[in-house]
Structure formats: structure tokens, C-alpha cells
Amino acid sequence: MEDKNFQFKTNLNCTSCVAKVESELNNTDGISEWNVDVANSNKTLTVKAEGISEEEVINIIKKKGFHAEPLPIKA
Fold this sequence. Notes:
35% strand, four-stranded antiparallel β-sheet, Alpha-Beta Plaits, globular, 2 helices, 4 strands
């Protein structure tokens, strides 16, 4: 699987919400970097993936009680 960057629209509204998913995202093989822009209206989660699928990232977020839907990556 090739390295990719994914972006997701989420409902991670604040730093407390981000903290709830932080450990899981930090400790998942296949995620090298991630960031949530809580100031953006889409609450955009950006993930640099190295061998993990978009669906696997979505499942991590859902497992923590939040929502994520893929956004197209802007060139």
C-alpha cells in the first residue's frame, strides 16, 4: 500500500475531543502524522498514512464515538 494523505470532515469540535482520539491515532501503525484543524468549519482531520486505509482511519474515529467522512484532497 502506498503512502497517502487523507482528509476527513469530523465532529472533533475542541481540544478535549481531539485528546480522546490522540492516543489511538498516535499508536496506530500506518499513521505517521496527523492533525485536526478545530478552527476550520469542517473540523478537518489530516492524516499522513503509510500503509493504513482511509476506512481504517474512519473506524478509529468511530470507535472513539466521533464521526469522520472523507474529503477530497486539494491539489
